Amino acid sequence: MAEIRLVDVSLRDGNQSLWGATGLRTAHIATIAPVLGRVGFRALDYSSSTAMGVSVRTHREDPWALLRLTRSAVPDTKLQFIGTGFRFISWERAHPEVIELVYRCLVRNGMDRFVVLDPSHDMDAARATARVAKKAGGSEVIGALTYTISQVHDDAFYAGIAAQYAACDDIDRAYIKDPAGILTPDRARTLIPAVQAALGGKPLELHSHATLGLSPLTCLAAAELGVHVLQVGCGALGNGSSLPSAEHLVANLRATGHSVDIDDRLLAAVARYFDRLAAAEGLPPGNPGSFDAAFMDHQLAGGVLSTTRRQLAEIGLADRFDALMAEIAQVRGELGYPIMVTPYPQMVIGQALANLLSTQAGNARYDNVPDQVIRYALGTFGKPTAPIEPWVLGKVLGRPRAAELAGERPPLDVAELRQRFGTRISEEELALRFGMPGAEVDAMIAAGPAVTHYNPGTVPVLKLLRSLAGRPAARELTVGKPGFRLSLRSDAARKGAS
Most exposed among 83, 282, 418, 442, judged by the fewest C-beta atoms under 10 Å? Predict the structure, then answer.
């Protein structure tokens, strides 16, 4: 039995999976970061372009300032960024010069560990992103093997990808990424040895979501097979559609003979902080998942699934949920089995919904095709893992709109962005303006520095005070509890009493 190290995903993937990426603000992260840095985690899954966009758009907070603040609070723990290498915040493809600028900014502000995630396992694209991360100064680059179930994604397929990671000098490690939580312990016992053999000694990690309740057992199987780094979530940001609970997994690993060099007291403090934060802010905690065989077909991550159900209800089609799930599975196969990680779930769901509405109106499937699906067929996002069904490809690319999108101008390079946004702004601001509407960046700058301290215990009191501030002026206020009573009266009330 070996020593197991942990990577905590609470700040990025936990927040994204359970709280729609909007639950955590600068104050929340800045308050707990010094403790997270002393727990003993090997790294913190810290940010992505999606998370950085949410900081600006939703919270009016500067993600670069937050990164610098966190780095100073956790000087000895690696901070991880996950990216595809072809976009930043915006869904539009970015020029390679812009991606180089983004990674340069990330390293300069404190990021040092990078996950290379190409949704199609396009190895030319993955190698290019790894090269950019290393050139920028990243100290550790991890190649993702994104797990899915299909006719083409067998153990040999993943071993082939692992062999190419092994041959790439810019990739230091690999991890199996299971976003839908569908990797079973039995499959892990064939997949992991095949990948390890192909990696040629490069370390392997496991990142498996707890959506179906499988991953706590799969993690134990992985540890037995020699995977020495497992990824977890803490407190309310573990379990459910996030990663397995850190406290429970540590206990189970030790019970099965493994050692885990974690400060249990500090781990408990982090878990309780996120529990209290969730309660104070009205955010749903992750709960242990139960198995649902339907996930093996549609393979949607929990957060995507809940969003899809809500959006169907909003357009009055809540009763068509099961039909949409079946259509999603069929469309995915017809499009060459794209792995259901961003941006592919949005594409597949969009096409499945278009097909559902078309057939409901008496028309044919693929009579309507979203632009992103056309771009996918054109190869804008890389080459599909398996060929698109010929009749589908013909219907998609035979549309007049396909010719228009094929003629789109290439993305702007850095010089063109400077011409558009000005030469005096920092590279960090330029990156944000590239990926976001200018008004949102302006609002972030106007908001000024973010608050950097948070106490969940004060939230109810602050809510009460804000509520009172919105009411007509009170002449008298009394606060009481057993053994304590405080009365406050205005000067006018005291004069009236006398």
Answer: 282
Do the beta carbons of residue 239 and residue 211 sit within 8 Å? no
Neighbours of 419 (CB within 10 A): 11
Q: What are the structure tokens assigned to 92, written together?
A: 């539009």
Spatial separation of the C-alpha atoms in residues 13 and 237, rounded to whole Å: 9
DSSP result, 291-307: --TTHHHH---HHHHHH
Tell me the pTM: 0.87
Chain-centroid distance of CA 40 in Å reads 22
pLDDT of 372-402, one tens digit each?
Answer: 999 999 988 777 888 999 999 999 999 999 9
Give the position of tokens 């397929």: 157
Contact between 356 and 324 under an 8 Å Cβ cutoff? The reply is yes
Least Cα distance to 74 among 32, 117, 116, 135 occurs for 32
CA distance 26 to 436: 19
d(CA 276, CA 455): 9
Strand partners, 484: 481
Can the peptide bond before residue 193 be classed as cis, meaning omega within 30 degrees of 0?
Answer: no
454: left (phi over 0), alpha (psi -120 to 50) or beta: beta
Per-residue pLDDT reduced to its tens digit, 171-193: 999 999 999 899 999 999 999 99
